Amino acid sequence: MLKNEIRQTVLKQLKAQNRERKAEIDKALLEQVLASSEYQEAKTLATYLAFDFEYNTKALITQAQKDGKVVLVPKTHPKSQMTFTEYTPKQLEMTKFGLLEPIKEHPVAKTSIDLIHVPGIAFNSQGYRIGFGAGFYDRYLKDFQGDTISTIYPCQEIDFHADLHDVPVRKVFIYDGQRF
């Protein structure tokens, strides 16, 4: 299956999820992230502001702030470029992609980020991902030296071949009712 076909198939499954069950899985995934050494050792966490069908990042952001971590969210630019800037809820605007992102850019140096929580639509067993197709994260992560994690639902685990430019996520948390 081609990446675009996989993307469309998984997006349909994500959007059809039972909301209550999704909330339970989100909570279980959050517990696993919070218990991980990657999270516990990070002082600066970059995450994303999710679509409603994606893993809900609000609880992760809230807990990270309570834990005294600096929380960053992406700011997109032309030519599929992206930076991370400190999360300030009152200083967000809607993008053409339908996501919230910071109004002003105060980019944090890539070397100052300990952990990036990476979004994606589909993931294979090696941690390679299919995103929305613009390449923002692959470009950003190609020389990133810190830890990367993702939180996914069972329907997002799919076998596919990565492209040469794809960058794998180092640790993928998946909930299947029993294991992570």
From TrEMBL:
<dbReference type="Pfam" id="PF01812">
    <property type="entry name" value="5-FTHF_cyc-lig"/>
</dbReference>
<dbReference type="GO" id="GO:0046872">
    <property type="term" value="F:metal ion binding"/>
</dbReference>
<dbReference type="GO" id="GO:0035999">
    <property type="term" value="P:tetrahydrofolate interconversion"/>
</dbReference>
<dbReference type="InterPro" id="IPR024185">
    <property type="entry name" value="FTHF_cligase-like_sf"/>
</dbReference>
<dbReference type="InterPro" id="IPR037171">
    <property type="entry name" value="NagB/RpiA_transferase-like"/>
</dbReference>
<keyword id="KW-0479">Metal-binding</keyword>
<feature type="binding site">
    <location>
        <begin position="3"/>
        <end position="7"/>
    </location>
    <ligand>
        <name>ATP</name>
    </ligand>
</feature>
<dbReference type="InterPro" id="IPR002698">
    <property type="entry name" value="FTHF_cligase"/>
</dbReference>
<keyword id="KW-0067">ATP-binding</keyword>
<dbReference type="GO" id="GO:0030272">
    <property type="term" value="F:5-formyltetrahydrofolate cyclo-ligase activity"/>
</dbReference>
<feature type="binding site">
    <location>
        <position position="54"/>
    </location>
    <ligand>
        <name>substrate</name>
    </ligand>
</feature>
<feature type="binding site">
    <location>
        <position position="49"/>
    </location>
    <ligand>
        <name>substrate</name>
    </ligand>
</feature>
<dbReference type="GO" id="GO:0009396">
    <property type="term" value="P:folic acid-containing compound biosynthetic process"/>
</dbReference>
<protein>
    <recommendedName>
        <fullName>5-formyltetrahydrofolate cyclo-ligase</fullName>
        <ecNumber>6.3.3.2</ecNumber>
    </recommendedName>
</protein>
<comment type="similarity">
    <text>Belongs to the 5-formyltetrahydrofolate cyclo-ligase family.</text>
</comment>
<feature type="binding site">
    <location>
        <begin position="129"/>
        <end position="137"/>
    </location>
    <ligand>
        <name>ATP</name>
    </ligand>
</feature>
<dbReference type="GO" id="GO:0005524">
    <property type="term" value="F:ATP binding"/>
</dbReference>
<keyword id="KW-0547">Nucleotide-binding</keyword>
<keyword id="KW-0460">Magnesium</keyword>
